[in-house]
Amino acid sequence: MSRLVIDRLALSHFRSHRRVDLTLDGRPIAIWGANGAGKTNILEAVSMLSPGRGLRRARPDELMRRPQALGWKVSAELTSLTQLHEVETWAEPGSTRNVRIDGKAAAQVALGRIARIVWLIPAMDRLWIEAAEGRRRFLDRMTMSFEPRHADATLAYEKAMRERNRLLKDDVRDAHWYAALEAQMAREGAAIMANRNQALARVAAAQHDAATAFPVADLTLEPPEGGTLPDTEDALAEALAQDRPRDMAAGRTLTGPHRADLGAIYARKSMPAAQCSTGEQKALLISLILANARALAQDFGAPPIVLLDEVAAHLDGDRRAALYDEIAALGAQAWMTGTGPELFEDWGNRAMQIEVREGADGSEVRVI
User: What distances in angstroms separate CA 54 from CA 50, 253, 254, 286, one per listed residue?
Assistant: First the structure.
């Protein structure tokens, strides 16, 4: 079976870690230690091996170890399917993030071609009850795991939209100023909608086809309240042209994929996720992450790397054991954090154990 695993991970001046060098054996990794010791920082470093701003959405300068602020670097030796890759990503003070793959400079999107990484972090626990922006970000991250070029379409759409919004705020009424921008928004917006719908279909199939201890969520793309959600290039171009007067009054674009919401129904109870209990909402999130991973295993040819930050603390013993069994059955290299080794007892020798402690010079890492 083809695999996607990190064989070696090295950090330099990354957050609380001055230097870390881990040699890994392909098994899942259980990382435990007190709150604030630096466990999540290791998961964040792994997340930087994918396109974007990582699991905390941090700016490059926020990742530098303080007070030195010398810059940071994450290096990895990666087995991706049948290929071995050396990956480096880093940033110097005041600079953007750089990427190098196999010794050659690369764009961030290239990371998505050799590695797929999904994650679940405590900040997502309120996903179903907070604003739509977080759900769109969750959906786009999921979509990008299937189609790395989705990030390019999103960036191009947002750039054109910012220019259109500037015209709207400046009360520009000449249609010629809008034509090229709206054409680009329509083209990229249609691609965004198609990518999102395809991702939802893949995750839905992976949920319904699997025997799992976690609940199934029926997912839909929803328009904003009282609005529409055009999903073709022609329909979006027409809507943008027609909505200029309304958008001008608002000073921003009110129609398009940037206004979509992710709807979720707990299938067995026919209940919106927002109305479910806290435990049910967490279980739905775990179900989606596992379904995303199962679908990626089929599409990519190997299960993705899975990052689970403090997930064990919010599950009872049976659900925790079920989660571990599903990860083991999937064959994914999962990176998990918790406050103590007892949370990972169900893994036995199926997982590596790493302790992280707060030392005199930052975080200290010890392989058990």
Answer: 7, 28, 28, 19
Residues 147 and 268 in one domain: yes
Say what the pLDDT of residue 317 is.
86
For tokens 């919401």, the residue is 261
Residue 138's φ and ψ, nearest 5 degrees, are: -60, -45
Choose the final residue of a domain: 276, 303, 330: 303
Residues 142 and 290 placed together within one structural domain of the fold? yes
Q: In this predicted structure, what is the pLDDT of residue 68?
A: 83
Domain of residue 147, residue span: 122-303
Do 15 and 161 lie in a common domain? Answer: no
Give the pLDDT score at 266. 96
Label the pairing between strands 261-266 and 217-222.
antiparallel
Residue 80 sits at the vertex; the CA angle it makes with 297 and 87, to the nearest 5 degrees, is: 130
Q: What is the pLDDT of residue 43?
A: 98
Give pLDDT, residue 1. Answer: 61
How many domains in the chain? 2
Token pair of 121, please? Answer: 């972090």
Side-chain half-sphere exposure of 332, counting CA atoms within 13 A: 31
Q: Which of 348, 296, 303 is nearest to 321 (CA)?
A: 348
Q: Please indicate, yes or no, whether residues 191 and 223 belong to a single structural domain of this protein.
A: yes
Q: Determine the Cα angle at 335 with ends 329 and 339, to 5°.
A: 115
**Residue 90's domain is classified under what CATH number?**
3.40.50.300
* First and final C-alpha spacing in the chain: 28
Residues of the chain with pLDDT under 70: 1
Beta bridge partners of 85: 78
The CATH number assigned to the domain holding 203 equals 1.20.1050.90
Distance of alpha carbon 363 from alpha carbon 343, whole angstroms: 21
Q: Enumerate residues 6+ apart whose C-beta is below 8 A from 18.
A: 12, 65, 361, 362, 363
Query: Of 261, 277, 303, which residue is a domain's last?
Result: 303
Cα 332 → chain centroid:
16
Q: Is 366 in a helix, a strand, or coil?
A: strand
**Beta-bridge mates of residue 264:** 219
Same domain for 350 and 296? Answer: no
| Assigned token pair, 103 | 């010794």
Predicted local confidence at residue 92, as pLDDT: 95
pLDDT at 60: 96
